[in-house]
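Hey L., structure's done. Input below.
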Amino acid sequence: MAGSIWDTNTGIRALAIGAPIQEDLLNPSTRMTRLTTILCASLLLGTAGSALAQDTSSRIARVTVYSGTATVERVAKVAAGARSFSFTCLPASLDAQSLQIHADASVRVGEFNVLTEDRDVAPACASPLDGRIRELEDQIAGVKAETGALDLVDSYLKGVAGGRTVGDDAPGGRGQGPTPAQITAMAEVLRKSGQDALARTHQLKRKQEALELALKPLVAERNRLASQRARVVSVSINLAAEREGELRLSYQVRGPGWQPTYRAALDPAKATVLLDRQALVAQSSGEDWSNVQLVLSTGQPGRATQGRLPRPWTLDVAPPPQPMPTPAPAMMAAAPPAPVARALGMAEEAMPSFEVSTTDKGFATEFAVPQRITVPSSGQRVTLALGSHSAAATLLTRTAPAVEDVAYLVAEVATPPGVWPAGAVGLYRDGAFVGTGRLDFGAPGTAPAGSTSLSFGKDDLVTVRAEAPQDLTSATGFTGARTERRTRRAYSVENRHRTGITLQVLHAAPVSRNEKIEVESRYQPQPAEMAFNRTPGTVAWQQPLAAGATAQFSAEHTIRYAKDIQLQERQ
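Output:
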Protein backbone atom coordinates (compact mmCIF):
# COMPACT_ATOMS: atom_id res chain seq x y z
CA MET A 1 0.00 0.00 0.00
CA ALA A 2 1.44 3.30 -0.97
CA GLY A 3 1.06 6.45 1.08
CA SER A 4 2.59 9.89 1.05
CA ILE A 5 4.09 12.37 3.48
CA TRP A 6 3.99 16.17 2.94
CA ASP A 7 7.17 17.92 4.07
CA THR A 8 6.11 21.37 5.30
CA ASN A 9 9.72 22.66 5.13
CA THR A 10 10.46 21.83 1.52
CA GLY A 11 6.94 21.68 0.08
CA ILE A 12 7.72 18.26 -1.48
CA ARG A 13 5.23 15.40 -1.29
CA ALA A 14 7.28 12.26 -0.73
CA LEU A 15 5.79 8.95 -1.85
CA ALA A 16 5.67 6.12 0.63
CA ILE A 17 6.83 3.22 -1.48
CA GLY A 18 5.24 -0.11 -0.83
CA ALA A 19 4.15 -2.91 -3.13
CA PRO A 20 3.53 -2.36 -5.93
CA ILE A 21 5.95 0.52 -6.70
CA GLN A 22 4.10 3.68 -7.79
CA GLU A 23 4.12 4.58 -11.46
CA ASP A 24 5.15 8.20 -10.95
CA LEU A 25 8.24 7.12 -8.97
CA LEU A 26 9.38 4.91 -11.80
CA ASN A 27 8.87 7.70 -14.34
CA PRO A 28 11.93 10.03 -14.12
CA SER A 29 10.34 12.69 -16.32
CA THR A 30 7.42 13.02 -13.87
CA ARG A 31 9.77 13.38 -10.94
CA MET A 32 11.99 15.96 -12.69
CA THR A 33 8.93 17.96 -13.79
CA ARG A 34 7.70 18.19 -10.20
CA LEU A 35 11.19 19.12 -9.00
CA THR A 36 11.56 21.83 -11.65
CA THR A 37 8.21 23.34 -10.66
CA ILE A 38 9.25 23.51 -7.02
CA LEU A 39 12.66 25.02 -7.88
CA CYS A 40 11.12 27.71 -10.09
CA ALA A 41 8.73 28.66 -7.31
CA SER A 42 11.64 28.89 -4.87
CA LEU A 43 13.63 31.11 -7.21
CA LEU A 44 10.66 33.43 -7.75
CA LEU A 45 10.19 33.78 -4.01
CA GLY A 46 13.93 34.38 -3.49
CA THR A 47 14.18 37.13 -6.09
CA ALA A 48 10.93 38.95 -5.31
CA GLY A 49 11.46 42.53 -4.27
CA SER A 50 15.10 42.67 -5.45
CA ALA A 51 14.53 45.46 -7.96
CA LEU A 52 16.40 48.68 -7.18
CA ALA A 53 14.62 51.99 -6.79
CA GLN A 54 15.97 54.16 -9.62
CA ASP A 55 15.54 57.88 -10.20
CA THR A 56 13.79 58.14 -13.55
CA SER A 57 12.62 61.75 -13.18
CA SER A 58 15.28 63.02 -15.61
CA ARG A 59 17.60 61.64 -18.25
CA ILE A 60 20.89 62.71 -19.83
CA ALA A 61 20.12 63.87 -23.36
CA ARG A 62 23.40 65.41 -24.52
CA VAL A 63 27.04 65.44 -23.41
CA THR A 64 29.77 67.68 -24.82
CA VAL A 65 33.21 66.31 -23.95
CA TYR A 66 36.29 68.53 -23.73
CA SER A 67 39.81 67.72 -22.56
CA GLY A 68 39.42 67.08 -18.84
CA THR A 69 35.80 68.28 -18.50
CA ALA A 70 32.36 67.63 -19.93
CA THR A 71 29.09 69.55 -20.13
CA VAL A 72 26.11 67.34 -19.30
CA GLU A 73 22.55 68.32 -20.27
CA ARG A 74 19.70 66.64 -18.43
CA VAL A 75 16.07 66.80 -19.56
CA ALA A 76 12.92 66.24 -17.49
CA LYS A 77 9.18 66.42 -18.12
CA VAL A 78 7.27 68.82 -15.86
CA ALA A 79 3.57 68.20 -15.31
CA ALA A 80 1.03 70.96 -15.68
CA GLY A 81 0.54 72.84 -12.43
CA ALA A 82 3.89 71.77 -10.96
CA ARG A 83 5.48 74.19 -8.53
CA SER A 84 8.87 72.56 -7.99
CA PHE A 85 11.19 69.95 -9.43
CA SER A 86 14.37 68.27 -8.20
CA PHE A 87 17.24 66.83 -10.23
CA THR A 88 18.63 64.19 -7.88
CA CYS A 89 21.61 61.82 -7.79
CA LEU A 90 23.90 64.20 -9.68
CA PRO A 91 27.66 63.54 -9.40
CA ALA A 92 29.73 65.24 -6.70
CA SER A 93 32.18 66.44 -9.38
CA LEU A 94 29.51 68.83 -10.62
CA ASP A 95 30.68 72.45 -10.83
CA ALA A 96 27.94 74.51 -9.18
CA GLN A 97 29.18 77.69 -10.91
CA SER A 98 28.43 76.15 -14.30
CA LEU A 99 24.75 75.35 -13.62
CA GLN A 100 22.35 76.56 -16.30
CA ILE A 101 18.56 76.05 -16.25
CA HIS A 102 16.33 76.38 -19.31
CA ALA A 103 12.67 75.54 -19.82
CA ASP A 104 9.91 75.69 -22.40
CA ALA A 105 7.82 78.87 -22.67
CA SER A 106 5.02 77.27 -20.63
CA VAL A 107 7.33 76.77 -17.62
CA ARG A 108 8.55 79.78 -15.62
CA VAL A 109 11.70 79.16 -13.57
CA GLY A 110 12.41 80.81 -10.21
CA GLU A 111 15.17 80.33 -7.65
CA PHE A 112 17.02 77.05 -7.11
CA ASN A 113 19.25 75.54 -4.44
CA VAL A 114 22.00 72.95 -4.48
CA LEU A 115 22.38 70.25 -1.81
CA THR A 116 25.38 67.92 -1.44
CA GLU A 117 25.03 64.83 0.74
CA ASP A 118 26.48 61.37 1.27
CA ARG A 119 25.20 58.75 -1.11
CA ASP A 120 24.41 56.50 1.86
CA VAL A 121 21.63 58.80 3.06
CA ALA A 122 20.05 59.01 -0.40
CA PRO A 123 18.45 55.58 -1.02
CA ALA A 124 17.37 56.53 -4.53
CA CYS A 125 21.02 57.21 -5.46
CA ALA A 126 22.41 53.73 -5.02
CA SER A 127 25.74 53.10 -6.71
CA PRO A 128 25.42 51.92 -10.32
CA LEU A 129 27.35 48.84 -9.20
CA ASP A 130 24.78 47.88 -6.58
CA GLY A 131 22.23 46.70 -9.12
CA ARG A 132 24.69 44.43 -10.89
CA ILE A 133 26.06 43.12 -7.59
CA ARG A 134 22.57 42.28 -6.33
CA GLU A 135 21.72 40.63 -9.61
CA LEU A 136 24.78 38.39 -9.37
CA GLU A 137 24.10 37.65 -5.70
CA ASP A 138 20.53 36.65 -6.58
CA GLN A 139 21.80 34.36 -9.31
CA ILE A 140 24.27 32.75 -6.90
CA ALA A 141 21.49 32.27 -4.36
CA GLY A 142 19.34 30.64 -7.05
CA VAL A 143 22.15 28.27 -7.96
CA LYS A 144 22.67 27.35 -4.31
CA ALA A 145 18.94 26.75 -3.89
CA GLU A 146 18.86 24.41 -6.88
CA THR A 147 21.97 22.63 -5.61
CA GLY A 148 20.30 22.14 -2.23
CA ALA A 149 17.20 20.72 -3.90
CA LEU A 150 19.35 18.26 -5.84
CA ASP A 151 21.03 17.24 -2.59
CA LEU A 152 17.58 16.38 -1.23
CA VAL A 153 16.89 14.32 -4.34
CA ASP A 154 20.25 12.58 -3.93
CA SER A 155 19.50 11.74 -0.29
CA TYR A 156 16.06 10.43 -1.20
CA LEU A 157 17.45 8.23 -3.98
CA LYS A 158 20.10 6.88 -1.63
CA GLY A 159 17.36 6.00 0.86
CA VAL A 160 15.36 4.21 -1.83
CA ALA A 161 18.46 2.39 -3.06
CA GLY A 162 19.13 1.24 0.50
CA GLY A 163 15.79 -0.55 0.61
CA ARG A 164 14.15 1.97 2.98
CA THR A 165 11.00 3.75 1.87
CA VAL A 166 9.38 6.82 3.26
CA GLY A 167 6.38 4.76 4.38
CA ASP A 168 8.47 2.35 6.49
CA ASP A 169 8.32 4.64 9.48
CA ALA A 170 4.52 4.82 9.40
CA PRO A 171 2.45 2.25 11.36
CA GLY A 172 1.55 -0.57 9.09
CA GLY A 173 3.82 0.84 6.38
CA ARG A 174 5.67 -2.42 5.83
CA GLY A 175 4.09 -4.21 2.87
CA GLN A 176 4.83 -7.05 0.59
CA GLY A 177 8.34 -7.03 -0.97
CA PRO A 178 8.81 -5.95 -4.59
CA THR A 179 9.01 -8.46 -7.39
CA PRO A 180 12.23 -8.98 -9.44
CA ALA A 181 10.77 -7.01 -12.36
CA GLN A 182 9.95 -4.13 -10.09
CA ILE A 183 13.45 -4.22 -8.60
CA THR A 184 14.99 -4.06 -12.11
CA ALA A 185 12.79 -1.14 -13.12
CA MET A 186 13.51 0.69 -9.87
CA ALA A 187 17.28 0.14 -10.28
CA GLU A 188 17.15 1.67 -13.78
CA VAL A 189 15.18 4.66 -12.50
CA LEU A 190 17.65 5.16 -9.64
CA ARG A 191 20.62 4.96 -12.01
CA LYS A 192 19.17 7.47 -14.48
CA SER A 193 17.90 9.86 -11.82
CA GLY A 194 21.19 9.73 -9.91
CA GLN A 195 23.21 10.31 -13.09
CA ASP A 196 21.06 13.31 -14.04
CA ALA A 197 21.25 14.75 -10.53
CA LEU A 198 25.06 14.44 -10.31
CA ALA A 199 25.58 15.92 -13.77
CA ARG A 200 23.31 18.84 -12.95
CA THR A 201 25.10 19.36 -9.62
CA HIS A 202 28.45 19.59 -11.45
CA GLN A 203 27.02 22.15 -13.91
CA LEU A 204 25.66 24.22 -11.04
CA LYS A 205 29.04 24.17 -9.32
CA ARG A 206 30.74 25.52 -12.45
CA LYS A 207 28.04 28.18 -12.83
CA GLN A 208 28.46 29.26 -9.23
CA GLU A 209 32.23 29.57 -9.67
CA ALA A 210 31.75 31.76 -12.75
CA LEU A 211 29.22 34.00 -10.99
CA GLU A 212 31.47 34.43 -7.95
CA LEU A 213 34.39 35.28 -10.25
CA ALA A 214 32.30 37.98 -11.94
CA LEU A 215 31.08 39.29 -8.58
CA LYS A 216 34.52 39.69 -6.99
CA PRO A 217 35.81 42.71 -9.05
CA LEU A 218 32.45 44.48 -8.75
CA VAL A 219 32.51 44.21 -4.97
CA ALA A 220 36.12 45.43 -4.93
CA GLU A 221 35.19 48.46 -7.05
CA ARG A 222 32.18 49.23 -4.87
CA ASN A 223 34.37 49.06 -1.77
CA ARG A 224 36.89 51.40 -3.42
CA LEU A 225 34.18 53.92 -4.19
CA ALA A 226 32.76 53.59 -0.70
CA SER A 227 36.19 54.34 0.80
CA GLN A 228 36.08 57.69 -1.00
CA ARG A 229 32.80 58.57 0.78
CA ALA A 230 31.01 59.14 -2.50
CA ARG A 231 28.64 62.09 -2.39
CA VAL A 232 25.76 63.16 -4.60
CA VAL A 233 24.24 66.51 -5.49
CA SER A 234 20.58 67.50 -5.79
CA VAL A 235 19.32 70.65 -7.53
CA SER A 236 15.84 71.77 -6.41
CA ILE A 237 14.09 74.34 -8.60
CA ASN A 238 11.01 76.43 -7.84
CA LEU A 239 8.90 76.88 -10.95
CA ALA A 240 5.40 77.50 -12.26
CA ALA A 241 4.20 75.19 -15.05
CA GLU A 242 1.08 76.49 -16.78
CA ARG A 243 1.01 73.33 -18.84
CA GLU A 244 3.20 70.32 -19.42
CA GLY A 245 6.68 71.25 -20.62
CA GLU A 246 10.34 70.33 -20.67
CA LEU A 247 12.96 71.43 -18.14
CA ARG A 248 16.67 71.32 -19.00
CA LEU A 249 19.63 71.45 -16.63
CA SER A 250 23.22 71.67 -17.85
CA TYR A 251 26.36 71.48 -15.73
CA GLN A 252 30.05 70.74 -16.05
CA VAL A 253 31.81 67.81 -14.43
CA ARG A 254 35.55 67.43 -13.97
CA GLY A 255 37.43 64.34 -15.13
CA PRO A 256 35.89 63.16 -18.43
CA GLY A 257 37.87 63.73 -21.58
CA TRP A 258 38.74 62.51 -25.03
CA GLN A 259 41.93 62.06 -27.02
CA PRO A 260 42.33 61.86 -30.79
CA THR A 261 43.97 58.78 -32.21
CA TYR A 262 44.63 57.68 -35.77
CA ARG A 263 45.29 54.71 -37.97
CA ALA A 264 47.50 55.24 -41.03
CA ALA A 265 47.62 52.46 -43.64
CA LEU A 266 50.22 52.87 -46.40
CA ASP A 267 49.83 51.31 -49.83
CA PRO A 268 53.34 51.66 -51.36
CA ALA A 269 52.20 50.43 -54.78
CA LYS A 270 49.65 53.25 -55.11
CA ALA A 271 51.60 55.78 -53.00
CA THR A 272 48.51 56.50 -50.86
CA VAL A 273 47.87 56.65 -47.13
CA LEU A 274 44.42 55.88 -45.71
CA LEU A 275 43.95 57.95 -42.55
CA ASP A 276 41.27 56.79 -40.12
CA ARG A 277 40.68 59.25 -37.31
CA GLN A 278 39.23 58.08 -34.02
CA ALA A 279 38.56 59.41 -30.55
CA LEU A 280 39.13 57.69 -27.22
CA VAL A 281 36.47 58.74 -24.70
CA ALA A 282 36.37 57.80 -21.01
CA GLN A 283 34.76 59.13 -17.88
CA SER A 284 34.39 58.29 -14.20
CA SER A 285 32.13 61.15 -13.15
CA GLY A 286 29.86 58.95 -11.05
CA GLU A 287 26.92 58.73 -13.50
CA ASP A 288 26.65 56.58 -16.62
CA TRP A 289 26.03 58.29 -19.94
CA SER A 290 23.43 55.92 -21.33
CA ASN A 291 22.07 56.37 -24.85
CA VAL A 292 23.11 60.03 -25.10
CA GLN A 293 23.92 62.38 -27.96
CA LEU A 294 27.70 62.77 -27.75
CA VAL A 295 29.67 65.77 -29.00
CA LEU A 296 33.48 66.02 -28.87
CA SER A 297 34.92 69.52 -28.74
CA THR A 298 38.46 70.87 -29.09
CA GLY A 299 37.55 73.76 -26.77
CA GLN A 300 39.06 74.07 -23.30
CA PRO A 301 36.57 75.72 -20.94
CA GLY A 302 38.78 75.02 -17.93
CA ARG A 303 41.78 77.00 -19.12
CA ALA A 304 42.65 80.58 -18.10
CA THR A 305 40.32 83.22 -19.50
CA GLN A 306 42.94 85.99 -19.48
CA GLY A 307 46.56 86.02 -20.56
CA ARG A 308 49.49 87.26 -18.50
CA LEU A 309 50.28 90.98 -18.72
CA PRO A 310 53.83 92.38 -19.13
CA ARG A 311 55.62 93.40 -15.96
CA PRO A 312 56.93 96.98 -15.60
CA TRP A 313 60.54 97.49 -16.74
CA THR A 314 62.34 99.93 -14.46
CA LEU A 315 65.94 101.17 -14.32
CA ASP A 316 67.78 102.42 -11.25
CA VAL A 317 71.30 102.83 -9.94
CA ALA A 318 72.49 99.79 -8.07
CA PRO A 319 73.44 100.52 -4.41
CA PRO A 320 77.03 99.87 -3.32
CA PRO A 321 77.64 96.25 -2.38
CA GLN A 322 77.24 95.45 1.29
CA PRO A 323 79.55 93.05 3.12
CA MET A 324 77.99 89.67 3.48
CA PRO A 325 77.67 88.50 7.10
CA THR A 326 78.97 85.07 7.96
CA PRO A 327 75.97 82.74 7.87
CA ALA A 328 75.21 80.82 11.03
CA PRO A 329 75.14 77.02 10.77
CA ALA A 330 71.67 75.83 9.96
CA MET A 331 69.99 72.67 9.05
CA MET A 332 69.47 72.07 5.38
CA ALA A 333 66.01 73.21 4.43
CA ALA A 334 63.82 70.78 2.62
CA ALA A 335 63.07 71.57 -0.96
CA PRO A 336 59.68 73.22 -1.37
CA PRO A 337 57.00 70.83 -2.53
CA ALA A 338 56.15 70.89 -6.19
CA PRO A 339 52.96 72.79 -6.99
CA VAL A 340 49.95 70.58 -6.76
CA ALA A 341 48.82 71.76 -10.16
CA ARG A 342 51.94 70.25 -11.70
CA ALA A 343 51.67 67.02 -9.75
CA LEU A 344 48.13 66.45 -10.91
CA GLY A 345 47.48 65.38 -14.50
CA MET A 346 44.35 64.91 -16.53
CA ALA A 347 44.27 61.70 -18.58
CA GLU A 348 41.15 60.49 -20.11
CA GLU A 349 40.19 58.19 -22.94
CA ALA A 350 37.22 55.96 -24.29
CA MET A 351 35.24 54.67 -27.51
CA PRO A 352 32.43 53.09 -29.89
CA SER A 353 32.84 53.64 -33.64
CA PHE A 354 30.57 55.88 -35.77
CA GLU A 355 30.64 58.46 -38.55
CA VAL A 356 30.45 62.05 -37.31
CA SER A 357 29.76 65.55 -38.56
CA THR A 358 32.33 68.29 -38.01
CA THR A 359 31.38 71.87 -37.11
CA ASP A 360 33.87 74.74 -36.98
CA LYS A 361 32.56 77.18 -34.37
CA GLY A 362 35.33 79.75 -34.79
CA PHE A 363 37.11 79.16 -31.47
CA ALA A 364 36.58 75.40 -31.29
CA THR A 365 35.72 72.46 -33.51
CA GLU A 366 32.99 70.00 -32.59
CA PHE A 367 32.54 66.40 -33.73
CA ALA A 368 28.90 65.32 -33.34
CA VAL A 369 28.11 61.59 -33.33
CA PRO A 370 24.71 61.00 -34.97
CA GLN A 371 24.03 57.71 -33.15
CA ARG A 372 23.34 57.67 -29.45
CA ILE A 373 26.29 56.47 -27.40
CA THR A 374 26.72 54.83 -24.01
CA VAL A 375 29.83 55.63 -21.96
CA PRO A 376 29.90 53.94 -18.53
CA SER A 377 31.25 55.70 -15.46
CA SER A 378 33.77 52.93 -14.81
CA GLY A 379 36.54 54.60 -16.84
CA GLN A 380 36.12 52.10 -19.66
CA ARG A 381 37.44 53.48 -22.94
CA VAL A 382 35.06 53.89 -25.82
CA THR A 383 36.39 54.32 -29.37
CA LEU A 384 34.55 56.53 -31.83
CA ALA A 385 35.41 56.76 -35.51
CA LEU A 386 35.59 60.36 -36.69
CA GLY A 387 35.89 59.59 -40.39
CA SER A 388 38.60 58.59 -42.86
CA HIS A 389 40.53 60.21 -45.66
CA SER A 390 42.62 58.75 -48.48
CA ALA A 391 45.60 61.01 -49.17
CA ALA A 392 48.28 60.94 -51.85
CA ALA A 393 51.74 60.49 -50.37
CA THR A 394 55.27 61.31 -51.42
CA LEU A 395 57.41 58.27 -50.60
CA LEU A 396 61.01 58.68 -49.48
CA THR A 397 63.68 56.30 -48.31
CA ARG A 398 65.45 58.19 -45.53
CA THR A 399 68.75 57.34 -43.88
CA ALA A 400 71.30 58.99 -41.59
CA PRO A 401 74.37 56.78 -42.11
CA ALA A 402 76.56 58.45 -39.46
CA VAL A 403 73.95 57.58 -36.83
CA GLU A 404 72.56 54.27 -38.09
CA ASP A 405 73.29 52.26 -41.24
CA VAL A 406 69.58 51.59 -41.81
CA ALA A 407 67.06 53.11 -44.23
CA TYR A 408 63.42 53.82 -43.38
CA LEU A 409 60.37 54.20 -45.59
CA VAL A 410 58.79 57.63 -45.05
CA ALA A 411 55.53 59.02 -46.46
CA GLU A 412 54.94 62.78 -46.63
CA VAL A 413 51.23 63.57 -46.49
CA ALA A 414 49.63 66.97 -47.06
CA THR A 415 47.15 68.25 -44.46
CA PRO A 416 43.70 66.80 -45.28
CA PRO A 417 40.62 69.03 -45.29
CA GLY A 418 38.96 69.63 -41.94
CA VAL A 419 40.37 69.58 -38.44
CA TRP A 420 42.85 66.88 -37.44
CA PRO A 421 43.97 67.37 -33.81
CA ALA A 422 47.39 65.99 -32.94
CA GLY A 423 47.39 62.48 -31.56
CA ALA A 424 48.94 59.02 -31.55
CA VAL A 425 48.81 57.03 -34.79
CA GLY A 426 49.03 53.32 -35.49
CA LEU A 427 51.10 52.64 -38.60
CA TYR A 428 50.34 49.86 -41.11
CA ARG A 429 52.25 48.96 -44.28
CA ASP A 430 50.73 46.55 -46.80
CA GLY A 431 48.12 45.63 -44.18
CA ALA A 432 50.69 44.70 -41.51
CA PHE A 433 51.16 46.64 -38.29
CA VAL A 434 54.65 48.17 -38.11
CA GLY A 435 54.48 50.41 -35.03
CA THR A 436 53.16 53.64 -33.61
CA GLY A 437 53.96 57.30 -34.09
CA ARG A 438 52.42 60.74 -33.72
CA LEU A 439 50.34 62.62 -36.27
CA ASP A 440 50.59 66.41 -35.97
CA PHE A 441 49.98 68.54 -39.03
CA GLY A 442 50.54 71.75 -37.05
CA ALA A 443 53.94 71.05 -35.51
CA PRO A 444 57.22 71.72 -37.34
CA GLY A 445 58.58 68.45 -38.64
CA THR A 446 60.66 66.80 -41.31
CA ALA A 447 58.10 67.45 -44.06
CA PRO A 448 57.36 70.61 -46.08
CA ALA A 449 55.06 73.21 -44.53
CA GLY A 450 51.42 72.15 -44.51
CA SER A 451 52.24 68.44 -44.38
CA THR A 452 53.66 65.82 -42.07
CA SER A 453 55.86 62.79 -42.46
CA LEU A 454 55.10 59.30 -41.17
CA SER A 455 57.75 56.62 -40.92
CA PHE A 456 56.57 53.11 -41.84
CA GLY A 457 59.50 51.05 -40.65
CA LYS A 458 62.79 49.80 -42.05
CA ASP A 459 63.40 49.34 -45.75
CA ASP A 460 65.40 46.12 -45.79
CA LEU A 461 65.96 46.30 -49.56
CA VAL A 462 68.13 49.39 -49.24
CA THR A 463 71.71 48.79 -48.08
CA VAL A 464 73.51 51.62 -46.29
CA ARG A 465 77.29 51.74 -45.65
CA ALA A 466 79.31 54.36 -43.80
CA GLU A 467 83.09 54.48 -44.30
CA ALA A 468 85.37 54.96 -41.33
CA PRO A 469 85.75 58.69 -40.46
CA GLN A 470 89.01 60.35 -41.50
CA ASP A 471 90.30 63.00 -39.06
CA LEU A 472 93.50 65.09 -39.46
CA THR A 473 94.67 67.81 -37.08
CA SER A 474 97.60 70.19 -37.83
CA ALA A 475 99.07 73.55 -36.77
CA THR A 476 98.93 76.46 -39.21
CA GLY A 477 100.13 80.06 -39.38
CA PHE A 478 103.65 81.54 -39.35
CA THR A 479 104.16 80.67 -35.72
CA GLY A 480 101.84 77.68 -35.53
CA ALA A 481 99.40 79.71 -33.48
CA ARG A 482 96.30 78.22 -35.14
CA THR A 483 94.90 74.73 -35.19
CA GLU A 484 93.33 73.22 -38.31
CA ARG A 485 91.23 70.10 -38.15
CA ARG A 486 89.94 68.24 -41.20
CA THR A 487 87.20 65.63 -41.06
CA ARG A 488 85.85 63.53 -43.94
CA ARG A 489 82.72 61.36 -43.98
CA ALA A 490 81.69 59.13 -46.89
CA TYR A 491 78.56 57.02 -47.41
CA SER A 492 77.20 54.65 -50.02
CA VAL A 493 73.60 53.54 -50.54
CA GLU A 494 72.46 50.65 -52.75
CA ASN A 495 68.89 50.19 -53.99
CA ARG A 496 68.00 46.48 -54.23
CA HIS A 497 64.34 47.14 -55.10
CA ARG A 498 63.00 46.17 -58.51
CA THR A 499 61.86 49.74 -58.96
CA GLY A 500 63.47 53.12 -58.41
CA ILE A 501 63.18 55.03 -55.14
CA THR A 502 63.58 58.61 -53.95
CA LEU A 503 66.56 58.61 -51.60
CA GLN A 504 67.15 61.13 -48.81
CA VAL A 505 70.48 61.07 -46.94
CA LEU A 506 70.91 63.21 -43.82
CA HIS A 507 74.24 64.40 -42.43
CA ALA A 508 75.23 66.68 -39.54
CA ALA A 509 77.79 69.40 -40.38
CA PRO A 510 79.67 71.46 -37.75
CA VAL A 511 78.19 74.89 -37.00
CA SER A 512 80.29 77.69 -35.47
CA ARG A 513 78.72 79.70 -32.66
CA ASN A 514 81.77 81.93 -32.17
CA GLU A 515 83.51 84.26 -34.61
CA LYS A 516 86.88 82.90 -33.49
CA ILE A 517 86.01 79.51 -34.94
CA GLU A 518 85.97 79.11 -38.73
CA VAL A 519 84.21 76.26 -40.50
CA GLU A 520 84.52 75.37 -44.17
CA SER A 521 82.50 72.52 -45.69
CA ARG A 522 82.62 70.80 -49.10
CA TYR A 523 80.16 68.20 -50.32
CA GLN A 524 80.01 65.71 -53.14
CA PRO A 525 77.41 65.96 -54.62
CA GLN A 526 75.95 69.27 -53.47
CA PRO A 527 73.12 68.74 -50.92
CA ALA A 528 69.56 69.71 -51.76
CA GLU A 529 69.07 71.39 -48.35
CA MET A 530 71.61 73.01 -46.03
CA ALA A 531 69.20 73.41 -43.10
CA PHE A 532 66.94 70.39 -43.17
CA ASN A 533 63.87 70.74 -40.95
CA ARG A 534 64.97 74.36 -40.38
CA THR A 535 67.94 73.09 -38.37
CA PRO A 536 71.27 74.77 -39.23
CA GLY A 537 74.00 72.22 -39.88
CA THR A 538 71.68 69.38 -40.89
CA VAL A 539 72.20 68.85 -44.61
CA ALA A 540 70.11 66.61 -46.81
CA TRP A 541 70.91 64.94 -50.11
CA GLN A 542 67.79 63.95 -52.02
CA GLN A 543 67.80 62.30 -55.42
CA PRO A 544 66.18 59.43 -57.34
CA LEU A 545 67.99 56.10 -57.21
CA ALA A 546 67.29 53.54 -59.91
CA ALA A 547 66.74 49.85 -59.24
CA GLY A 548 70.06 48.09 -58.55
CA ALA A 549 72.01 51.39 -58.53
CA THR A 550 74.41 52.65 -55.86
CA ALA A 551 74.92 56.29 -54.86
CA GLN A 552 78.00 57.81 -53.18
CA PHE A 553 78.00 60.81 -50.84
CA SER A 554 80.85 62.57 -49.05
CA ALA A 555 81.31 65.57 -46.78
CA GLU A 556 84.62 67.22 -45.82
CA HIS A 557 84.79 69.82 -43.05
CA THR A 558 87.72 72.05 -42.11
CA ILE A 559 87.67 73.68 -38.68
CA ARG A 560 90.16 76.48 -37.80
CA TYR A 561 90.62 78.18 -34.46
CA ALA A 562 93.34 79.79 -32.32
CA LYS A 563 95.61 77.37 -30.54
CA ASP A 564 94.96 78.90 -27.13
CA ILE A 565 91.19 78.31 -27.48
CA GLN A 566 89.70 75.32 -25.77
CA LEU A 567 87.20 74.00 -28.34
CA GLN A 568 83.80 72.98 -26.97
CA GLU A 569 82.22 70.41 -29.26
CA ARG A 570 78.80 68.81 -28.96
CA GLN A 571 77.38 66.11 -31.21
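Residues 3-49+130-225 form one domain. The CA atoms of residues 315 and 321 lie 17 Å apart.

-- N.
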